[in-house]
């Protein structure tokens, strides 16, 4: 009969402790804590946590949903008879309305880039103003590709971009009129 190798029982104990360590930490982690008076719900912080840190107020563009910037009346005025679809464009929140066989509009909100931060070819941009907001109208007249954008500055570090593309990629002046109409409808809702 073979004798047990010295140290073998110790190895087994270490393995057992290693397997139980996460369970023990989980059980002991709650010791000494007082239960919260308010149950935490998804997306909400208990009142005790808000006493330590003031709540973050949603202001500026962060408080806006790009798909709600065009009401049913606004969409009718702009010739858009469809609902918008939320999109993410390079990390920015956007909404896209596509009128089959006619044109598409995308409204993109940038919380981090003001007008001065946007990379726009100077030969295609024209400074303008929409309501109370400084703006740029961007269209390449030489390309005549049926696309146009109106970029609205929201303070120094945020912007809203309205892009219009005509089906068939023709009639750039019409795309600019459509972009201007949508910009005029969106602008009063901006901070």
Number of strands: 7
SSE string: HHHEEEEEEEH
User: How big a fraction of the residues is strand?
Assistant: 25-35%
As laid out across the biggest beta sheet, the strand order is 1-2-3-7-6-5-4
Q: Main sheet?
A: 7 strands, antiparallel
Number of helices: 4
Tell me the overall shape: globular
Amino-to-carboxy terminus distance: 86 Å
Structural class by sheet pairing and helices: alpha+beta
How much helix is in the residues? Answer: 25-40%
Unreliable segments of 5+ consecutive residues: 1-58
Average of per-residue pLDDT values? 78
Radius of gyration: 28 Å
Give a verbal description of the structure.
Helices cover 26% and strands 26% of the residues. The chain is of the alpha+beta class and 191 residues long. A seven-stranded antiparallel sheet has the order 1-2-3-7-6-5-4, with helices on one face. Strand 2 (92-99) and strand 3 form a beta hairpin.
Layout of SSEs?
Elements: H1 8-29, H2 47-52, H3 72-77, E1 85-89, E2 92-99, E3 103-110, E4 125-130, E5 133-138, E6 147-154, E7 158-166, H4 172-186
Antiparallel strand pairs: 1-2, 2-3, 3-7, 4-5, 5-6, 6-7
The gist of it:
The chain is α+β, with helices and mostly antiparallel strands.
For this entry, give a set of tags.
191 residues, alpha+beta, 7-stranded antiparallel sheet, 4 helices, globular, disordered N terminus
């Amino acid at each position: 009969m073979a004798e047990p190798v010295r140290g073998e029982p110790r190895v087994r104990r270490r393995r057992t402790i290693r397997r139980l360590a996460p369970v023990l930490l989980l059980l002991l982690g709650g010791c000494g804590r007082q239960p919260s008076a308010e149950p935490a719900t998804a997306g909400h912080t208990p009142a005790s946590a808000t006493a330590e840190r003031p709540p973050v107020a949603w202001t500026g563009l962060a408080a806006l949903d790009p798909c709600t910037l065009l009401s049913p009346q606004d969409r009718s005025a702009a010739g858009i008879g469809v609902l918008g679809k939320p999109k993410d464009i390079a990390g920015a929140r956007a909404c896209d309305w596509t009128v089959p066989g006619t044109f598409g509009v995308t409204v993109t909100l940038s919380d981090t880039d003001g007008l001065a931060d946007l990379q726009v070819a100077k030969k295609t941009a024209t400074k303008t103003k929409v309501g109370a907001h400084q703006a740029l109208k961007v269209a390449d007249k030489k390309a005549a590709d049926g696309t146009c954008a109106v970029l609205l500055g929201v303070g120094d570090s945020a912007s809203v971009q309205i892009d219009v593309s005509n089906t068939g990629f023709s009639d750039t002046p019409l795309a600019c009129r459509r972009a201007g109409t949508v910009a005029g409808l969106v602008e009063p809702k901006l901070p």
